[in-house]
Write a structure and sequence with these properties.
single chain, two-stranded parallel sheet, Farnesyl Diphosphate Synthase, mainly alpha, 2 strands
Length: 306
């Protein structure tokens, strides 16, 4: 099967840094402190993730079939895919990236090919692991992390960031027929949320507040685990964590008016948060991972069995 191209920017896979700079400004900012080699690896991983995400969110008529083909290739089948996928396969082999994590990433993208209305917190956390916790796990390999315990904390960072994404993009997602807020928190249809009428504004805001509280648990865990990373990469990951976390705090500062659209972190805030990230480099004993954070994740990639 020939994989359709979701956008022109992926026609040249030799420029991952440009794609990162254009579409992942927070990660591009943080990657500047990784060093040239690790920054290049991170950009290549981002390029692959952006490729499948762009495909999943696009309007191509054969996008689901293309995602299925990519998943099959990652699972070891001999299926023709695009250059972006083959470049990732080379990267995965070179740095021992678990392809089970990439397969789960595609599973998450495939879930988004139908109207999304999550039921409860367990579904929410499992979805966040699929589309972002797996990325944290893969990133650990690219940073040459030799500490097995780091995987759990890396997954937490991915989940935390995805919870932040969901809180920021409630209105945009609803317009795409997606509601990631669990029905047990806010039982409105995506169409009702997209209309943003008075009936649902406050209840959805309360659900977003709950979402951000949940993200704080995962951010707090991930921040502890940063010290398990090689020293050279700690500052960059700490910066990405703090800047992304700030999105939720900006939302709260603006009284959770989600119907006004997404919020942004200013450049001056990024600079300040980057300076504060230096505190995360101080030597400190990392406690055991809080297994309760992964209570809904048994059997998924990188999750330690309890």
């Amino acid at each position: 099967m020939k994989i359709s191209q979701p956008s022109q920017e992926f026609a040249d896979t030799a420029q991952p840094q440009q794609v990162l700079a254009r579409n992942g400004k927070t990660f591009y900012w943080a990657s500047k402190f990784l060093g040239a080699d690790q920054a290049d690896r991170a950009a290549k991983l981002y390029l692959f993730c952006r490729y499948v995400d762009d495909l999943a969110d696009g309007d191509l008529p054969d996008r689901q079939a293309s995602l299925v083909a990519i998943r099959a290739r990652l699972a070891g089948e001999d299926v023709a895919t695009g250059a972006e996928v083959e470049a990732f396969m080379i990267l995965a082999k070179q740095y021992n990236i678990p392809l089970s994590a990439a397969v789960e990433l595609l599973d998450g993208m495939l879930l988004d090919q139908k109207p999304t209305a999550l039921v409860n917190e367990a579904e929410l956390v499992r979805y966040c692991h699929a589309v972002a916790g797996t990325v944290g796990l893969m990133m650990c390999r690219l940073l040459n992390c030799k500490e097995p315990r780091a995987d759990s904390f890396a997954i937490d960072l991915g989940i935390a960031m995805q919870l932040t994404n969901i809180s920021r993009d409630v209105l945009e997602d609803a317009k795409m027929d997606r509601r990631y807020l669990p029905a047990s928190w806010a039982n409105f249809s995506p169409q009702q949320i997209a209309q943003a009428d008075d009936e649902c504004q406050q209840q959805v805001a309360l659900a977003i507040s709950r979402l951000l509280d949940l993200s704080e648990q995962f951010y707090a865990s991930a921040q502890l685990g940063i010290r398990l990373l090689p020293f050279r990469s700690r500052l960059s990951i700490a910066m990405a964590l703090r800047v992304y976390r700030q999105i939720g705090w900006v939302l709260k500062r603006r009284k959770l008016v989600w119907w006004h659209g997404r919020v942004m972190v200013t450049t001056s805030e990024k600079v300040l948060l980057s300076l504060r990230s230096l505190a995360d480099l101080r030597p400190k004993k990392v406690p055991p991972h809080e297994t309760i954070l992964h209570q809904h994740l048994d059997g998924l990639a990188g999750v330690q069995r309890r």
